[in-house]
Each structure stands twice: as C-alpha cells, then as structure tokens.
# Entry
Amino acid sequence: MEHCSRSIGIFDSGLGGLTVMRQILEELPQESITYFGDTARVPYGNKSSDTILKYSIENSNFLIQKEVKALVVACNTASAYSLEHLQETFSIPVVGVIEPGVERALEATHNGHIAVLGTEGTIRSGAYQKQFARMKSGIQVTTIECPLFVPLVEEHFLSHPATKMIVKEYLAPLKGAGVDTVLLGCTHYPLLRSFIEEELGDDVTVIDSASSCSQKLRSILGEASLLANQNVIPKLQYYVSDDANRFKERAQEFLETSIDEVRTQCFGVNVE
Amino acid sequence: MEHCSRSIGIFDSGLGGLTVMRQILEELPQESITYFGDTARVPYGNKSSDTILKYSIENSNFLIQKEVKALVVACNTASAYSLEHLQETFSIPVVGVIEPGVERALEATHNGHIAVLGTEGTIRSGAYQKQFARMKSGIQVTTIECPLFVPLVEEHFLSHPATKMIVKEYLAPLKGAGVDTVLLGCTHYPLLRSFIEEELGDDVTVIDSASSCSQKLRSILGEASLLANQNVIPKLQYYVSDDANRFKERAQEFLETSIDEVRTQCFGVNVE
# Structure
C-alpha cells in the first residue's frame, strides 16, 4: 500500500478521543482513520504514570500492526506520560494533544496568565507546565484538576444542573485570578464547553486541544508528504478493548453518523 | 500453616470493597485479611460481562496464590458476573455480596416491593432479579442504575449539594412507587447512605450488602471450622494493581486506621 493511503491511527482511553477524531474528519476529510478506544481500562486520568505508559505502548503497537501512517495520542493523560517514549520508539509521526493546545493558548493570551483544566493524572504529570516553559518564558500557568468531568460526560450529564454546580465549584479558584485564557486539557471537556464558558464569562478565551491537534497533524502530514490523495475513498475503522455495542451506540450519537462495525481487540488478559 | 489461621481474601475493583472489609473486621476481629484492589482497571460497573469475568479470575488466582482460606468478592458487578464460576473453580468457600444482600432485604420487606440500586453492569446482569426469584416468589423488584455514584464517592463528593441533586434524580422513579425496602447493590453506595435515606424518607428501610456479607462469611467459616483462633494476632495485608500510595492514603482515611504497607501486583500487561 502506498504510504499516503494508509490510515491515521488514533487512540484514547475510551470515547473522549472522538472529539479529536471529529476535528480531524473536518480538517482532513480525505483521510482514513483507525480509532482505538481502550474501554476495558477506561479511565486513565486517575491511574499511575507507569500504568498509563504500559497501556499507551500496547495501544500503539496494536495500531502499528494495522499499518497506520501516523499516530495520534488523543488523550491528554496518555500524551502526558507516553508521548516522548512513543516518538522515540516509532518511526512514523506521533502527535499528542498537549503541544498543539499549548501553542494555541500562547497565541490567544494577551496577559500571559493561562489556566489548564485536566484530569488528576494530566495535571500531576506537570506536562502542561513543562510544555509552556519550553515554548515561552514568563507565562503564569494555573492548573485545576477536574476529576468528575469525565464521568459526567460519559454518563451524558452534559446540561444537568448538578454538572453546572460542579463546573462552578472546580472553576471557583479562577474568579478574579486574572486568567485570560483557559485550555481544556482533556478530550472530554469540550462537551462541557458551554457551562465552562458561561462560568468564565466573555473576557476569557476557551481553547480546545482537539482542534489544535488536527491542525498540527495536517501540517506534519503535509511536510512528510503523507496526505491522502483526494480521489481515494476514506475508510473509518473502530476498535475497542471492551463492549463494542455500547461504544458504537455512543460514538454514533457523538459523531452524528452511522458506524458499520466496531471490533473488539482484547489484550493483556489471559484467562487460565 | 493450619487452615484456620490463613487469611480471608477479599477483592474489589478498587476502594469500594473496603466497606465490606470494615464490616468483616468488626464481625470477625480475630481474622487475618488479604485485600486486593484492582485499581489499574477500576471501575468495573461499566464494563462487559466477559471482561469482568476475566478480571475476577485473575484477581482470585492472585489471592489463591496467597493461600487464603476463603474468598470474598466484595464488588457487586464482579459477584454478578463471576461468582458461580469462581465457586465452581475453587475448592475454598467463595462469598459474594448479592445473595447476602437479597436475604437481608427479604427479611426486611413487609409489602414485597424492593428496589435495588447498582451500577449499570450489576443491574443489567439481572443477578439481583434472579437471586430474588430463586429465594422467594412474588417479590416485585425495581432496579435503578446509578452510574455516577461511584465516581462521586471516589472523588469525595460525599456531602456535596451536587451529589444530593444526583441522588434525588436517580431515586425519582421510587417516589410513590410503594417500595418499602431499598438494597444498596454496590459497595460504594453506603458512603452516600445519608443522602439516600433522606431522599427516601422514614418509611423505607435501606439495606447495605456489606454487613449482610460479613454475617454470611462468619456462618460459612464457622460451619467449615475455618474460624481463626482467638489467640492468633490477625494480619492485614493490602495489594493493588496500581498506585499504592493513593490507595494507602484513601484506605487509611476510610478505615480510620494506619496501614503499614500497600504492595503493587501488576498483571496482564506486558510491555514490548
């Protein structure tokens, strides 16, 4: 197969990476995509760095076997703990969600005070803080752990008053803190964007790493001459590590499209 | 080692089983316990039956290697999907949380209309419905999935107004339904007991499967002459599959005792 007609591999702990996939479909509609959701081990945000690294390597090896031409780590926690390792290990381009998000936040900020919302794992990894420091000096970064956002999204409590209350509580430290830009450091969080924006008010710009990631991917594929031909019909394939039906149902709703098949790929579990 | 001085093995997907352990410590203070929390793969409630069965077998094999004299499946979802298999596979007594909870609920009900609250996995397994039917005819069982209760407990939102709001919403179908007994079909739920009781009012009895399980265990160990001698100093050991420090911190708080060591046992994940 010609390299450029191979698919883009995306992995996430579950559904959240579909926000990234949706942006990639919009930005690069001619590309084929192989998506892997690690639904047998979701969520990643409250697990340790070693465990996340192991899971990320397994997920990547699976996609590499599917001959993907590039790898998108569509999960902030996995990006935080595994991106460098994956970039060193594999010869194809590997794109995470942290660096693109940080780039966009730096473009957006006027006063240099940026807040990052993320899971416990992402925030405690220090990956965002390090990336900001690497790209620009003098930026003040405020981080906020929002561990309940992922379960609220997974359970469709998207516009529920309890969710609004929890958003209010998590964002309380930002009141009067002088932050002008807020980076959504988890691929689930764009689904709570309206509550977050409402709570922050009009003076704060909310940046979503999903869209920055797809722009980054486009430029990397372009530079490596790996963009798909316009005349190829793109193919979308979905794999999960558990409960394909549940994923299919939610993914169809989420991507607003019909999905033919979601296949199951188990690994790491040997029964007797 | 004499059989009766061996420890009782308990496993759960994470922290929730500690509500069962606490009851066992109270009911059987002379017993040694080996606890395993599968924190690398928590939660179980939204995963498939096959995956839960595999995880349960792995957890049990680990405890069997530790020479436990009995096995407690301190997780309702795991009990629902694996108890029969584990009882057939192992020669030591295996106790779940479903049957003891059902027994207690049947003792408590006057009008024969009982509600069971549980995770998606537990409720959809039909395990409670089947157990009620097996033990008594003519019982009306209303089941309610409460998928957000586990994350709310794990994140310490125990007395938060958002939690109260979510409890209210999940329990709304019980208003005026004529239920006189509510069974907490998840080991995390006793931590939300006060909100649940407040919402249900004084006329409804709330049953907690943790305490029924420890009573069942006591009688099974007694019948099998496996109760520990009074003059042996009991030993409590803790293992998790991920992030021992985080578990230690929360478990100490939860059991209101100090824990010397939590050890890590990984399985099922092979890196490269």
About this structure: Chain B has eleven helices and ten strands. The mean pLDDT of chain B is 93. The radius of gyration of chain B is 18 Å. The beta strands of chain B are 8-12, 33-37, 70-73, 94-95, 113-118, 140-145, 181-184, 205-208, 236-240, 262-264.
